[in-house]
Design goal:
77% of the residues lie in helices and 0% in strands. By secondary structure, the protein is mainly α. The radius of gyration is 20 Å and the shape is globular.
Length: 303
């Protein structure tokens, strides 16, 4: 018979097959790496390949996807290591905060994955290596210990990191200049979501001494800032059509899939200007990212 403390430690990650308790740490490790975020990174690379004048070699696509996924997984593990005290309050069910995995597993996995991602990046052209190793890697490593506690600056750093996936893939495929518009759209979307998540996480960030915008200036100003960012993003998503970078197919897709949810985001924050309301908006925005990627993909059919 298991002791009560042992049973409680397994409860947050109970597995439907009782004969495989050893699988629980493996499942927790997968959860630590954020598989949905990794899928988004891979989709960004594939969409970039679609937008190229000619389909890139599959070897380049493979190395690019590997680098993006390994770097993103490493950054997720490292962030959870640094955010351990905060996650104990905000997200106690996360693998490290719950104790299913030891906290040190965060930096160990991050180190291994960063090394792997750097190796795969070296298989690509020099420009891609510079984007990944000289720009993205330092930002990922320094984000939580240095940038996260700076109001909006930390959000902007995350936005740049996510947008760099498009620039990196464009550089890997020899057409970096074509990816500035997707970079801007991805960065703008991420900036808004990060600002909203700061409102949701205000309790844990306060307890952890992280000086985000809602912690330093209060929730009401942070909500107004998120609403302003929403309006700016709504306009920004229309700019590629206004500037004739993308055509009517993109416009229809972005209005239905992005503009309408962003308008809902604005209204919901107005009606629920609190951490709970922000939490729901963050979930909506996470799903809406796929609609944004779809709109960028569909722009290919306007050419």
């Amino acid at each position: 018979m298991k002791h009560a403390s042992e049973a409680e430690s397994l409860a947050p990650f109970s597995f439907p097959f009782p004969n495989f308790p050893s699988m629980i740490p493996f499942i927790a490790a997968i959860k630590l790496l954020r598989p949905i975020n990794l899928i988004l990174g891979a989709l960004s690379v594939l969409i970039t390949a679609v937008l190229m004048p000619a389909w890139p070699p599959w070897s380049a696509i493979g190395w690019t996807i590997a680098t993006v996924m390994l770097y993103n997984a490493a950054a997720n593990a490292l962030n959870d290591y640094f955010d351990y005290p905060i996650d104990k309050i905000n997200r106690p069910a996360r693998p490290l905060a719950s104790g299913v995995l030891p906290r040190n597993m965060g930096w160990v996995l991050a180190l291994v994955l960063f090394i792997g991602g750097t190796f795969t990046a070296f298989q690509l052209p020099t420009t891609a290596q510079i984007v990944a190793i000289a720009i993205a890697l330092p930002l990922m490593v320094l984000y939580t210990p240095l940038f996260k506690g700076l109001p909006l600056v930390g959000n902007l750093v995350v936005a740049v990191i996510l947008g760099l996936a498009f620039l990196f893939a464009g550089a890997a495929f020899g057409h970096l200049a074509l990816m500035w518009t997707p970079f801007g759209l991805a960065a703008g979307f991420t900036l808004l979501r990060e600002a909203v998540k700061d409102i949701e996480d205000v309790a844990g960030d306060t307890g952890g001494g992280v000086g985000t915008l809602p912690v330093r200036w209060g929730v009401p100003p942070a909500v107004k800032t998120a609403q302003i960012l929403t309006l700016l993003l709504m306009f920004g998503c229309l700019l590629p059509y206004i500037l004739q970078v993308y055509g009517p197919t993109y416009l229809v897709a972005v209005i239905i899939g992005v503009e309408v949810p962003l308008l809902y985001t604005f209204v919901h924050l107005y009606n629920h200007p609190n951490p709970a309301g922000a939490g729901w908006v963050a979930k909506v925005l996470k799903v809406d990212i796929f609609a944004g990627l779809l709109a960028i993909y569909l722009s290919k059919f306007d050419v």
